[in-house]
Amino acid sequence: MKNAQNRNGSKGFTLVELLVVMAIIALLLGLLLPALAKARATARQVKDQTQVKQIHQGWLTASNDSGGVLPLPGEINRGGTVPGRGDIDEIQNNHANLHGAMIGRGYVNAQILVSPAEVNSKVVACATYNMNRINPATDCYWDPIDQAGAGSGGTLPNPATGFRADLTTQCNTSYAVMPLDPASRRRTEWRNTGNSRFAIMGNRGPKAGNPTSADYTNSKTLLIHGGSREWDGNIGYNDNHVEYGRTFYPENVKPLNQASCSGGGADLIVNSLSQDNIFKNDTGCQTNAKKNVDSVLWIQRRSTNTTANGIVTADAFDGGDFVSWD
Q1: Strand (E) positions, the chain?
Q2: Helix and strand totals (H; E) in the chain
Q3: Which of 51, 67, 110, 325 is 20 to 30 A from 299 via CA?
């Protein structure tokens, strides 16, 4: 009696035929997987670029309520030393309060502040933000993580629920932003200028933009969009366009005049001009008079002011007290 296989006039695959098919599938996968990985990386980069534009667009929209000035936490907090006058409270001006205030006012959400290409496990979307903490009657305009931002009648919950911007512990944003120190750079560029040559925010970079140190070769920021050897990133400009590049010295950023603002011997010098390192507070740009020309992007975890009236010098920006890395 013939079996069912013979009645159907067919036979099964031989071992050799199965191995050939498996080899062909493995070959096709080997050809397709790198292309798929590249496509996924490109999609992350494009989405990241869109988020940079959205965050900056939120700032631009908020600036319509303040004469074109981009949102400044110390100005949003209108209590000040004289009630009703609305002094700028400089101690509030850091990136944690900036993003926290924008979430509280509805201009951004917590998710777009974290890059889809994020590689640092300490960077997570803020999932504990408490809108009920906002109470202008007690001088509290966002959910704070420090007592200074809690307002005149506020106390912090334990643990605090607000927005964090400290890469050494927990950070709720992937993106570096221009420092909010009270200098001419803020007066000149922390506003809706439409300046296509001033970098105002983007993917963060290695510590102090130093490509020759271990802080560069070991930096997690190299893995956000690039490989393990080269930094890649999206940089947003004050006209709301975003460029993707592989250099700390974007050609689109206005060079620094050697006579008044030298980048130093290790920096790129072209035709007697120092190309601006966007992750470094360039040497010679330390004084308030020069800080309007230097683009620098960091994550500023607290203000440069130790007290309401005690302004720390700009040199302190290069220390770990105010900026965190990786």
Answers
A1: 165-166, 170-171, 175-177, 199-203, 233-237, 242-245, 256-257, 269-270, 273-274, 299-300, 323-324
A2: 6, 11
A3: 67
Within 10 A of 289 (CB to CB), how many other CB atoms are there?
Answer: 12
Question: Mind listing the pLDDT tens digit for each residue in 210-250?
Answer: 888 888 989 999 999 977 788 999 999 999 999 999 988 99
Q: Which residue has the higher pLDDT, 84 or 261?
A: 261
Q: Say what the pTM is.
A: 0.84
Top-confidence residue, 32 or 203: 203
- Whether residue 243 contacts residue 250, with contact meaning beta carbons closer than 8 Å, is answered with yes
**35 assigned to some structural domain:** no
Residue 26 forms part of a structural domain: no
Residues found in the chain:
326
User: Which whole number is the average pLDDT over 280-300?
Assistant: 76
Q: 311 near 182, Cβ under 8 Å?
A: yes
- Which tokens hold the place of 278? 């966007």
Element (H, E) at 7: helix 4-7
217: CB partners within 8 A, 6+ apart = none
Handedness of CA 269, 270, 276, 278 (dihedral sign): negative
Instruction: State which residues form the domain around 54.
Output: 40-324
Residue 7 inside a domain? The answer is: no
Q: pLDDT for 168-188, tens place per residue?
A: 999 999 999 998 887 778 889
> Per the structure, how many domains does the chain have?
1
pLDDT of residue 189: 93
Residue 312 lies in a domain: yes
- Taking residues 106-121, report their average pLDDT: 96
What's the CA angle centered on 114, arms 179 and 60, to 5 degrees?
55
